[in-house]
Structures are given as structure tokens and as C-alpha cells.
Specification:
This protein has 18 helices and 13 strands. It folds into 4 domains: 7-91, GIY-YIG endonuclease (3-Layer(aba) Sandwich); 106-244, no CATH class; 261-447, UvrC, RNAse H endonuclease domain (Nucleotidyltransferase, domain 5, 2-Layer Sandwich); 460-514, 5' to 3' exonuclease, C-terminal subdomain (DNA polymerase, domain 1). The N and C termini lie far apart (61 Å). Strands 7, 8, 9, 10, 11, 12 and 13 form a 7-stranded mixed β-sheet that branches. It has a 3-stranded antiparallel β-sheet with strand order 2-1-3. The protein has a 3-stranded antiparallel β-sheet with strand order 5-4-6, with helices on one face. It has helices at residues 7-12, 39-47, 51-54, 57-65, 77-91, 139-153, 189-203, 209-223, 227-244, 261-272, 324-346, 357-368, 383-395, 429-455, 470-480, 483-487, 491-495, 502-514, and strands at residues 19-24, 30-36, 68-73, 106-110, 119-122, 131-136, 280-287, 295-302, 305-306, 312-315, 376-380, 403-407, 412-414. The protein is flat, with a radius of gyration of 29 Å. The chain is an alpha+beta fold. The longest helix has 27 residues, at 429-455.
Length: 525
């Protein structure tokens, strides 16, 4: 056994500065990631002889396992929080508890292409044409800054209650002087966009005039002995400085990594006894937080890294209620049933071919140089989800692709025709690869579920009328402005809208006249 290195040698080189420290075991695996305002003092506290006697069992086990230390100096405590969170999500150290879920730091998004852009909080950055600021380490300071910024620059905070964001009169922010109200003509769109640009410059840290003004107001309030007002301005000043402080945005490329995709693929092949390396893997996850929207995700990993072009999202239609097993069967059936149909369309000899479906798909994939069936199929769940997926694959004639289930609670791997699950070591590269693809599927499914719930805010009673497509719904709202006005219109008036026949107008009139009033969500947040 190799001799344990002297960690005090590394400690002597650590500065008294904020940063993040990484502890590794004898196999160079990351076992703990921590942050500190003073690196030398924080790490030195672990190496004190008395710490081994007074620490709890978990900390003593950690100290005994540390064989190497590395540290990264940052500019502030906030940067240390961001860096620590990214490292924990990347390495998933066994002794860390926080940041191991799929929750992300807050971002601020503004859609500059919208008619009247609004600043909103989000945790997921998308390629949707919007401008994003962050992530931000301190959510409380960010929320306070955003609320105050809206009042300062007169920015819109409301949500339009109907598709198209045409009707803004439901919002009363302009009455209480919290918004410049471009929707009712208080300012022009050009003037409003100048306000939005000024707010963007402030969030970017390019404009400091507001902070200087708040500091001056705080000092003036203190001189007037108005200490309550001065304390409020002091707290606001701290929030503004915290939010706009220049920070490094840590990306995956900037992180030190112990992820080796090739080695992890080989380890997974050996652990599961697969006939070939699982270069292409697909993982399924079901999200049924509520029965309103039950969705599923399928993510693809190629050569051990995400292949986002191959991601798919599904709304569960055929399954009634919250039934994970039936939902998993449905999404597997829809995914690979479609792939088989596409393969048949590419195969000119499919009509006269008697070979099994799996072999035919493999041959077509080789002929067209495309990947159709993955080397490994993973379902998020235990024996029940795995059994449902296997039954659907067998019905489709796909007996060749290896299928496993990964149960999250104890990270157990279930395989068909094996009564007992496999439990890999926590530091196994094979397990970490499975965890990465499972967590990615979970994140994608939850993100899609949240998106559908948000869309319900913009839905109207028109969505429930047969024959009213999205284009027709927008045409109706363009003509009448709101569903309430549409309810008061006659059949003849409704049929005058382009694309609306007399019979469809009658259906719309009958549906809206018998429909109970729908409770609208709160327009402002």
C-alpha cells in the first residue's frame, strides 16, 4: 500500500483567500468539495490532531480517507458558492449532501424580442432568443434587486392572461406608479425599450449611478436621524452590490474534471457483461407530479457525453391517471415503434423481408450510416418499470438491445431474467455514467413538465372547443381582443372572422354560452 502523503505540505501553500477545496481519496476520486472564506484556516481545521478526536463519525471517516488536496482561489464568497455547486454536480462526492439534486442557481431572463419585455426569474437557460443574466448565488438579494429594479425603471411585471399578450389592461401597476405602462400608452415602445436597456446595463454591472444614488440617500437619511429609512437603504445597497458584483461564470469547460467517458463506457460494459461497448445509450424518465400533465423524456448519450440533438419529450396520452408502469410502456412503444416505421421506410426490401425486426433495423442502420437502436436502453425505476419496457420491446420484435432499470433510492441496477439487482461501488465510473444520464433524463422531464404547467396560464376556453386550431384561436382573439368579448358576439359576427365557418361559429357560441366562468390565475407576480 502506498504511503499517505503529508497534507500539511499542501496546506502551507494555501493562501488566506476565499476559494474552493477538493479532497480526493487514494484512487484520486473526489470525495468532498467545500468552500471557504479563508482557505488555509478552513482546510487547516480538518488537519488539526484534536479534530480526529472531537469530530463526528462521518467527518472522521472523511479525514481518514483524504489522500490528496487541491484548491481553487476565487474573488468572493459568492463565486465560491457558484464554483462549489458546479463541482459537486460534476463529481457527486460521497461526503457532500447539498447541491446533489437537479436544482440550479437562479438566472434572470428578458425577452428583448417581445413587444414589451419583462424581467423574470428562471433556473434553466434555453436557446430561445432571450438574454440571460447570472447565475446568481444569493437568491434573496437577487429577488430584492429585481423587485426594486422594476419600480426604479418602470418595467412591466405582469403576465398577459390570454395568448398573444394583447390585453394588458388587467394590470394595475401603472396606477400605483410601479410601471411606466407602455400597454396603455403612458410611454412609447421606444421609450420603454430604453428603460429595458438601462436595466440590462445595471444587471451587467456597467452602470453604477443607481448604487451611488442609493448610498447618498442612505447617508442623507442618517444625517436626518431617520435611522429606519437609512437601515432600509443600507439593506437595499447590500443587495444591489451583491447582485451586480462581477463574478466568474463557471462552465463545464472551466471545471477540473475526473470524468473519463471512454473509461466509464468500458467499465459499464464489463459491469453489465454487454457484448459491445454502449456507445449509444438512451434513458427514459416519467414526470407525473400532478395528473394534469404526465410527461416523459428520452435523452441520448453518445460516447459517454450528452447528444442533445437526440433528446425527445413526450406527453402521455393513452395512459389514464398516475401509472408509472403504463406510462413507461407507452413512451417506449411510441419511441421504438416510430423508429421501426422509419427503418421500414428506408428499407426498399422490407415488404419481402422475413428477418427479425432487430436484425433488419441493424442492417438498415449500417446501410444508411445512422444510429437507430441504441446499444443500451435505461429506464428510471425498478423492476416494474423495467418489466413494462421489456414487454413493449418484445411486442415490437426487439429482443436484442440490452435493457436495464436504475432505481434511484439505493442506485440498484435491475436486469431482465436476473432475480437480484446489481449494486456497483459508489466510486465506480460505470455507476457515475449511469447517474449522469439518469439525472439528465430527470432534469429534462421535469423541465418539460414545468413548461406545460406555465402554458396553462395562457390557455383559454377556446382550447377545449373541437375544431378551433391555434391559428383560428389567435384569429378570434385578434378580432375580439378577449374571450369575454367573444362570448357577447353573435354567430354571424363570429363567422365573419376569416377561417371560421358558420357551423364552427355555432359550436363556439354554444360552447361559450354554456361554459362556466373560468377562474383566471393572478395576472401579476
Amino acid at each position: 500500500m502506498a504511503e499517505r502523503p503529508d497534507l500539511n505540505v499542501i496546506l502551507r501553500d494555501m493562501p488566506h483567500k476565499p476559494g474552493v477545496y477538493v479532497m480526493r481519496d487514494r484512487l484520486k476520486h473526489v470525495i468532498y468539495v467545500g468552500k471557504a472564506g479563508d482557505l488555509r484556516k478552513r482546510v487547516g481545521s480538518y488537519l488539526m490532531p484534536s479534530r480526529r478526536m472531537t469530530a463526528d463519525p462521518k467527518t472522521r471517516a472523511l479525514i481518514e480517507s483524504v489522500w490528496d488536496l487541491e484548491y481553487h482561489v476565487v474573488r468572493s464568497d459568492a463565486e465560491a458558492v457558484l464554483f462549489e455547486g458546479r463541482l459537486i454536480k460534476e463529481f457527486r462526492p460521497k461526503y457532500n449532501v447539498s447541491f446533489k439534486d437537479d436544482k440550479r442557481f437562479l438566472l434572470v431572463r428578458v425577452g428583448l424580442g417581445d413587444r414589451y419585455p419583462r424581467f423574470a426569474l428562471t433556473r434553466l437557460k434555453k436557446e430561445d432568443g432571450g438574454r440571460y443574466f447570472g447565475p446568481f448565488a444569493h437568491s434573496g438579494a437577487l429577488r430584492s434587486t429585481l423587485n426594486t429594479m422594476r419600480k426604479k425603471f418602470g418595467l412591466r411585471a405582469c403576465r398577459a392572461p390570454i395568448p398573444g399578450e394583447r390585453d394588458f389592461k388587467h394590470c394595475l401597476d401603472h396606477v400605483i406608479k410601479n410601471c411606466s405602462a407602455p400597454c396603455v400608452g403612458k410611454v412609447t415602445r421606444e421609450e420603454y425599450m430604453n428603460r429595458v436597456q438601462a436595466a440590462c446595463e445595471f444587471l451587467d454591472g456597467q452602470s453604477r449611478e443607481w448604487i451611488v444614488q442609493v448610498e447618498a440617500d442612505m447617508k442623507a437619511a442618517a444625517e436626518r436621524l431617520d435611522f429606519e429609512k437609512a437601515a432600509q437603504l443600507r439593506n437595499l445597497l447590500d443587495d444591489l452590490r451583491t447582485t451586480t458584483k462581477t463574478m466568474t461564470r463557471f462552465t463545464r469547460k472551466s471545471l477540473p474534471t475526473t470524468i473519463h467517458p471512454e473509461a466509464d463506457i468500458k467499465a459499464l460494459q464489463e459491469a453489465l457483461g454487454l457484448p459491445r461497448p454502449p456507445r449509444v445509450m438512451e434513458c427514459f424518465d416519467i414526470s407525473n407530479i400532478s395528473s394534469t400533465h404526465i410527461v416523459a423524456s428520452m435523452v441520448r448519450f453518445r460516447d459517454g457525453v450528452p447528444d442533445r440533438a437526440g433528446y425527445r419529450k413526450y406527453r402521455i396520452h393513452d395512459t389514464k391517471g398516475q401509472d408509472d408502469f403504463a406510462s413507461m410502456a407507452e413512451v417506449v412503444r411510441r419511441r421504438y415503434g416510430r423508429l421501426l416505421r422509419e427503418a421500414s421506410a428506408l428499407d426498399e426490401s422490407a415488404e419481402f423481408n422475413q428477418e427479425p425486426a432487430g436484425e433488419a433495423v441493424t442492417r438498415v442502420a449500417e446501410d444508411t450510416r445512422t444510429t437507430i437502436i441504441p446499444d443500451l436502453i435505461i429506464v428510471d425505476g425498478g423492476r416494474g418499470q423495467l418489466s413494462s419496457a421489456c414487454k413493449e420491446l418484445h411486442r415490437l420484435g426487439l429482443h436484442e438491445p440490452p435493457v436495464i432499470g436504475l432505481a434511484k433510492e439505493f442506485e440498484e441496477i435491475y436486469r431482465p431474467d436476473h432475480p437480484l439487482p446489481v449494486k456497483l461501488p459508489e466510486d465506480s465510473g460505470a455507476l457515475r455514467l449511469l447517474q449522469r444520464i439518469r439525472d439528465e433524463a430527470h432534469r429534462t422531464a421535469n423541465g418539460y413538465h414545468s413548461l406545460l404547467l406555465k402554458r396553462r396560464i395562457s390557455e383559454s376556453s377556446l382550447d377545449e372547443i373541437p375544431g378551433v386550431s391555434t391559428a383560428r384561436k389567435l384569429a378570434l382573439l385578434e378580432r375580439f381582443g378577449s374571450v369575454d368579448r367573444l362570448k357577447k358576439a353573435s354567430v354571424a359576427t363570429i363567422s365573419a372572422v376569416p377561417g371560421i365557418s358558420v357551423s364552427l361559429a355555432g359550436t363556439i357560441f354554444k360552447h361559450l354560452s354554456t361554459k362556466e366562468p373560468r377562474q383566471m390565475p393572478a395576472p401579476c407576480q
